[in-house]
Amino acid sequence: MSAPQMPHMPHIGVLPSGALGTIADVSGVTVGHCTLDQGPIQTGVTVIRAHRDDPYRQKVPAAASVINGFGKSIGLVQIEELGVLETPIALTNTFGVAAVAQAQIRAAIASNPQIGREWPTVNPLVFECNDGYLNDLQALAIQETHYAQALDRAAASFDRGSVGAGRGMSCFDLKGGIGSSSRVVSVAGRGFTVGALVLANFGRLPMLTVDGVPIGRELAPAQRTQAAHAAVSKPEQGSIIMIAATDAPLDARQLKRLSMRAAAGLARTGSAYGHGSGDIALAFSTAWTVAHDGDFVSTPPLLNDARLDPLFHACADSVEQAIVDALWSATSVTGRDGHTRLSLRDAVPDLEQRLEQRSA
């Protein structure tokens, strides 16, 4: 029997997407996964590469915004200070951060033996979300080899949903995970792309909003009952990592401003950035690089701040779309102690009709 057709995913906003509809529409950006699907072990690693060159020797400008800081990521302090990436961006579970950071350090040293000797140390960059509902975190299943596998598989075409770091993640009490999207804009007569990738692990079902339609209220059982009120009131303890890439010529200060607009896309889906939520956004540009051993930095003409609004719009829309994509792409997963998260496809087989009725 063939699988049921998934309802058509709504396109958020009016800006067009790129050809792939993912972060890989930003030229040179690739993504790879390593997925662990072994009974109570439901987790993995996802790696985003900004370009194919050595990231330590050719650093790209970047900046991060912490929307709510209940998180255990590594590498953000130096990003804030220096405004560049020195390794690929890695995503994993909360207890896997140390192993993945170690793997990033080893990979950098293997390519550049001077690191930590004649050259400065390397700044690993690892983001995390807590997948402990589906995954046995205490097993410490993530190993250095899993990062290497994800890195080796990085490509412009990649899966989304219950894969890589997204394998054990939940979103609005449904199956979450990896989502991605892109938007194309015109600025000062030139075309630029903003692409987003999210690790979505947040939200309560009654809060879920898709393209302005509060469908979570209808999906949550008996929403007006005392039990439903308790579900809405339950503390938000999830997290989301939002990565935005662009080919627009921006410096780290401007990228900081761009990363902040990811919060707008997140809020539109129903998040209130709860006390226990780790909501972090990072933006980087592929328009120019910083040579590790150069005396001077050559930058292209940077966009005037007054011309950034289209990129801000694209960032908000692409992050919102990427969250929706994570829900649309996910498959149901059963993991630790029989815990199950249903995919949107399995939980709401008549979703398309519901969306049409609500938006009519």
From TrEMBL:
Name the Pfam families on file: Peptidase_S58 (PF03576)
| InterPro entries for the chain | ArgJ-like_dom_sf, Peptidase_S58_DmpA
What is the source species?
A: Paraburkholderia franconis
Protein name, per record? S58 family peptidase
The record's similarity note reads: Belongs to the peptidase S58 family.
Question: What Gene Ontology terms describe what this protein does at the molecular function level?
Answer: aminopeptidase activity
Q: Please give the start and end residues of each transmembrane region.
A: none
Q: Which CDD domains match?
A: DmpA
